[in-house]
Amino acid sequence: MNEVPADLAGRPEGPVELPALVVAAARGPLEAVWRNGLGGLTFRDGDRFLKWMPEGVGIPLRDEAVRLEWAGRFHPVPHVLAVESDASGELLVTAALPGRSAVDERVRADPAAAAAAIGAGLRALHEALPVAECPFDWSPAERGWALPHPSIDRLVVCHGDACAPNTLIGDDGRWRGHVDLGGLGVADRWADLAVASMSLDWNFGAGHEGALFAAYGIEPDAERLDFYRMLWNREDAAAPANAEGEPPGPGGGAPGRLRG
Asked: Composition bias, kind Gly residues: at what positions (predicted)?
C-alpha cells in the first residue's frame, strides 16, 4: 500500500481566514471546500468556485487559466470567469461543473466504482485532447529529470495532477469532468496513470488499482509506474522549500498532491 502523505490536501476543518481577493470576488455565502499543503484555498460561491493561492508558491493560476481555456475546447473542464491578483496571491474564478469530487463522502461509499470512474475519465481525457495541438509540456525533462527513464509508451496530453479528487463523478457513478489542470501537458500516459492509481490508496485504502486500470483499458506496467511515482514523490519532497518562497528543488514546479 502507498503510504498516506501527512500533507495530503483536503476539506478544511474549523474556521478559515478569507483572503481579501476572495472577499472582494464573493457574491454570496462561501463554503471552504479545499485546502492544499501550500496554503491554497478553494471556496464554493453558489455556481462558481474561487481558488486562491498565496503569492510565489505553486503553479501560477494564470498559467492554469490558460490550460483550462485550451483544454475546454475538447473536454469538460471548468470555464474560466476571471483571474485576479494582489500582493498576497492570485485568485482563479471558474464556473462549477456538474458532479462531485471522487473523494466526496457519497462517492467514496463505493470506492471500486469511484476508481473505475476515475480510470474511464482519465482515458477519455487522454483520447480527447490533441497532442499535436497542445502547447504545454509535462515530460520528465520539463520536470527537471535529466537521467535515463523508461521509453515512451504513448504520448498523450496528461492532466498533470490526476489524483482522485480531481475527477468529478455524477450521481450515476460516471465521470463528468476534470478540475485543477495547472500541470497539464504532453507526456507519456503513465505519468498520469502512476499518480492516479497511487492516490487511490491515500483516499480509498488499498485494493482498488485493478478497477482503475480495467476501466482505462490497460494492464499495469511496473517499470513505468515505479518511475513516474518516483518522479512525483521527488517533486513533492521539494514542496516545503517552495512553500517558504525558496528556489524550487531539482524536480521543478509545485508538487502535485499539494496543488489542488
From this structure: 251-260
194: cell is 502512476
The answer for residues whose C-beta is within 8 angstroms of residue 233's C-beta and 6 or more apart is none
7 classed as catalytic: no
CA atoms of 197 and 211, how far apart (whole Å)? 10
Residues with Cβ within 8 Å of 102's Cβ and at least 6 positions away in sequence, in order, are 108, 114, 117, 118, 164, 165, 166, 167, 168, 169, 203
pLDDT digits (tens, 9 = 90+) for 64-89: 999 999 999 999 999 999 999 999 99
The pLDDT score that the predictor gives to residue 3 is: 56
For 66, residues 6+ apart whose C-beta sits below 8 A from its C-beta are none
Helices (H) and strands (E) in the chain, counts: 9, 10
CA distance 53 to 50: 10
Per CATH, 20-95 and 100-259 having the same topology is answered no
CATH superfamily of 20-95: Phosphorylase Kinase; domain 1 (3.30.200.20)
Angle at 204 between CA 164 and CA 95, to 5 degrees: 30
Q: What is the CATH number of domain 100-259?
A: 3.90.1200.10
Give residue for cell 464573493.
Answer: 26
The domain segmentation of the chain, as residue ranges, is 20-95, 100-259
Answer yes or no: pTM beyond 0.85.
yes
Q: Are 38 and 236 in contact (CB under 8 A)?
A: no
